[in-house]
Amino acid sequence: MSNLHTVLENISRAAHAAGRSPDEITLLPVTKYYDLAQIQELIDAGVTHMGENRPQQLAERAQLFPHINWVMIGRLQTNKAGLIARHASECQSVDSLRLARALDRRLDRVLPILLQVNVSGEESKTGFAPQQVPEALEAVETLEHLDVRGFMTMAPHSDDPTVARKTFHELRELRDKLAPTLPELSMGMSGDFPQAIAEGATIVRVGSALF
Ligand SMILES: *Cc1c(COP(=O)(O)O)cnc(C)c1O
User: Fold this and answer.
1) pLDDT of the residue at 124
2) From the alpha carbon of 206, which atom of ligand 1 is closest?
3) Which atom of ligand 1 is nearest to the CA of 208?
4) Count of alpha carbons within 13 Å of 180, Cβ hemisphere only?
5) In sequence order, what are the residues at sequence separation of 6 or more whose Cβ sits closer than 8 angstroms to the Cβ of residue 211?
6) CB 134 within 8 A of CB 55
């Protein structure tokens, strides 16, 4: 049995605690750890969008479950851009202009994307540095097959919940300052989604808490 309903309840609770409507927050179930039977269970429970962090696995699953919207959330090498152009309904992990251009060249439709921002500046994390975001927005706007919908980030691993919250706060400030019309902020995972919701997340990507 999945914990989908518990996760949805916890999202709802976090939204109310933040004075927000739960309708403003979309759960993106992340299926990278799970097998096909578990994916089927999520589908039976009404899930329509699923996140994967490896292009090959996303492509395989998109062929097995073509009616699901498969969302790319992980690091993507430019030589795998074709897989995502063919099989993903959205890519939340566009972390360089080189990747943006590679996706654009391989697409024959418009792909919604988020720019991944490395807010915390950790070396191990990919993404645009905050100061690169204005230039990235300008450049991506000229690419006809990409539709920038907002930003994605990952918080540093920490036992101190205020660390994640600060990262989420900074992403929201960046959006409000540079691109207030972009609607989406994808931030928050199993361990930190309440803090992300408090800071304005519109998409939370939850994997390990689902089963
Ligand atoms: C795996 C993954 C998640 C989900 O992480 P959990 O901690 O398992 O909820 C979210 N975002 C990205 C980019 C991931 O790779």
Assistant:
1) 87
2) 9
3) 8
4) 2
5) 2, 3, 33, 34, 38
6) no
Dist. CA 92 → ligand 1 center (Å): 12
Q: What is the pLDDT of residues 8-29, one digit of tens each?
A: 999 999 999 999 999 999 999 9
Q: Which of 166, 90, 178, 102 is nearest to 134 (CA)?
A: 178
Task: Tell how far CA 52 is from the center of its chain.
Answer: 10
C-alpha 190 – ligand 1 centre gap (Å): 7
Q: Distance of CA 50 to CAs 2, 64, 167, Å?
A: 14, 13, 24
**Ligand 1 centroid – CA 30 distance (Å):** 6
Separation of first and last alpha carbons in the chain: 7
109 in Cβ contact with 91 (< 8 Å): no
Q: Which two tokens stand for residue 207?
A: 């994997």
Rg (alpha carbons) of the chain, rounded to whole number: 16
DSSP secondary structure, 105-133, as one string: HH-SS-EEEEEEB-SS--TT--SB-GGGH
| Cα(94)–Cα(77) distance, integer angstroms | 10
pLDDT digits (tens, 9 = 90+) for 92-144: 999 999 999 999 999 999 999 999 999 999 988 899 999 999 999 999 999 99
Pocket test for ligand 1, best of 84, 192, 205 (most atoms within 8 A of CB): 205
